[in-house]
Write a structure and sequence with these properties.
alpha/beta; 17% strand; 38% helix; UDP-galactose 4-epimerase, domain 1; globular; Rossmann fold; 11 helices; 7-stranded parallel β-sheet
Length: 323
Amino acid sequence: MSTSSSELHVVLGAGQIGPRVAAGLVATGRRVRLVRRGRFGAELPAGVEPLNADVLDPAALAAATAGATTLYHCVNPLYTEWPRRLLPLTNGIIAAAEAAGAHLVVLDNLYMYGRAPGGVMREDTPLAPCSRKGALRAEADAAVRAARDRGVAVTVGRASDFIGPGATQAAVFGERFWPRLLAGKKVEVMGDPDQPHSYSFVDDVAAGLITLGTDPRARDQLWHLPANPALTTRALIEMIAAAAGVAPRLARVPTWVLRGVGVVAPLLREVAEMAYQWDAPYVLDDGRFRATFGATATPWSAVIASALAWARATYAAPVRAAA
Ligand SMILES: NC(=O)c1ccc[n+]([C@@H]2O[C@H](COP(=O)([O-])OP(=O)(O)OC[C@H]3O[C@@H](n4cnc5c(N)ncnc54)[C@H](OP(=O)(O)O)[C@@H]3O)[C@@H](O)[C@H]2O)c1
């Protein structure tokens, strides 16, 4: 991998993935800026320039991205804000890349595929969203394609549900999962835990985006980022529980309960809309990325060790010193 000090990589979004991308890029000697609205804390990697800006403010975004050679779109509004903010964010970031003459790398999810035939999603799987949020992602994808057609360099990496250190906003292995698992309590699962489901390790997602932003072979195309062969959610929970030394206990949360609670809790209504993903096989095919770049997903044993170390440090009750 060649590096150049004339490159400026601007990572938009300092949530679950952005800081990992920034850390990986700065480790290769590149100049890196990380952008968010809120205050930076421990997530800011050493050597990365922090910048506060609201990406929805065109002037602030233009200032944040001036001189960028590569932009990484790792921004995400709250689920409840998607109808108002997702497309303005996407369009604003595309416009900023165009104005800066920068290569745009977009982190995307799988919602736009809907219920894929056979449950397997490849880059050429037709878009058939079956949710409001999936329809928005398909619109965002159309904006990306239109930008490419007018000459903007846009490369897209799609990932499945996150797992790993810092993935607090993950659908299953998020902030409700780890404290309950470590305490030996039942962990909540949506849909059928015995269906195969792909999960994406946060470090693999970040490393994949760096490949897309730095390897010319990736440019202007759509890629599925590396993910381990899909296991069932139950099998993965059993592996995590065994590594944690607790008994695996699952509590299935029926979709009708999520919908019912969603009447008064808008965020859960948005979660309920996506529960279909656990009713049938939901498998991300990363074969094209593997064949092209030779990169494979981190083995489950290492993913679990890394997630558990983080979860223990973050959630486990402190051990009281003996009196
Ligand atoms: N969660 C998953 O399991 C998953 C799986 C696959 C793909 N994805 C996709 O990955 C992408 C990134 O999502 P994520 O879940 O990693 O995000 P996240 O952890 O929720 O982080 C989002 C970041 O965006 C920043 N942000 C939000 N609005 C902003 C604005 N107007 N201006 C500047 N910064 C703003 C937030 O910081 P401030 O609030 O401080 O601004 C935060 O740092 C999304 O497209 C998502 O759909 C997510």
